[in-house]
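Appendix B, record 7
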Amino acid sequence: MFHDPALARAVATDPRPASAVSTGAGLAGLMGIAGWIAACRAAGMDGPYAALVDLVACALPMVGWSLLVDKVHRRPSTGIDWAKPRPWRATLDDSLLKLVGLWATWGAIALIYATGRFYWQGNFAFAMWCFTRAVPAVLALSIPYVLWLDRYLVQLRDGAWHLGAWLAGQPGAARDAIHAHLRAWGVKAFFLAFMLAIVPPGFGDVVRRDMAGRWGDPIALTAWLVAVMFTIDVAFATVGYVLTFRPLDSHIRSANPFAAAWAAALICYPPLILMSDGGPLDYHPGTADWSHWLAGHPLLLWPVGAALVVLTAIYALATVAFGPRFSNLTHRGIVTHGPYAWSRHPAYLAKNLFWWLSTLPVLSTGSWRDAARATLILAAVSGVYWWRAQTEERHLRRDPDYVAYWEWMERNGPVPRLWRWMAGRSRARRG
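Structure tokens (predicted):
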């Protein structure tokens, strides 16, 4: 799908760094989603339970592929040595402290959820419904899981242990390890609630939308295909926040330690989002979308609609490429394949190009001032995503694997090469 002869020649002489997740894992999850959506459209199952099953249909094939084909559980990066299990009595005390740390973390997250009223309103209420019903099972399963896994871990004392030791007044608790642990769970708590909240609406829209007789309508077809792409993206992202397990090698290596990175990311999502209706970065007043401006011009509607679908597909495939590892603000292994062989930030690039093309902010249903405001505000939104990209790279460049990927992209990546060419032309004109 992403074939570039120049890129293929570069790979032959300058191999791209290996990706932490295989293409097959993402494709397995994609096939699971496609099969379930097709079944739901045939049977008319568009409710929240069907949407939750869609997450299972995405997760199970990826887990199976990862374990049976990629054998990720055998990788040294898991921190697991299956050949040297300890007696469970030798790890019991450490495991109990770890459970104390985990349960205290979950209790703090529950308190935050209970305090924030917005978490019990609108779409977020569905996420809280899921969490309240999952809590008993998660608490019960955490006990055998921790007791079992601790027997095989190379480094037994992780962030949960350090937090548990600190709470229990035991010696050896390290502040840096506790902070890293809380950052990782902070990411999961914030983003998993949001992702679960938007799973049912998008899934239901894709399943129930009647496309009979509308395949020749570029506006309707584009809208439905874009909705499908976003449904895929949300499913993979939600599954990614759940499947943070060492045996899958999908655990969080580190959460971004920089305050600027958190600020740049959190202002793009509810409840802190600045781009919402009426927010300071809301560029929609005085604008209309592409279908308004191109109405009655099918020769323009079809190519623009196709471009929007392609951009959304790139955005969704950038999430699919992560397989079970997608997560904001974390390092869970370096992804180098798919859209990431073209750009280090394909999702941000595709998303922003989609907004510019679909909104056309230089055109206005109001005055020229509205057009100027919309253009400047959308430019500011794009600037936020540039900021996010920079803060993410600052975090990931601590890993030599990412540095190797970054350098390879500078030499061979089509998008970095295009930017250099454009910059060179600009300098030449000024010269």
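Remarks on this record: The chain has one domain: 5-430. The chain has a mean pLDDT of 95.
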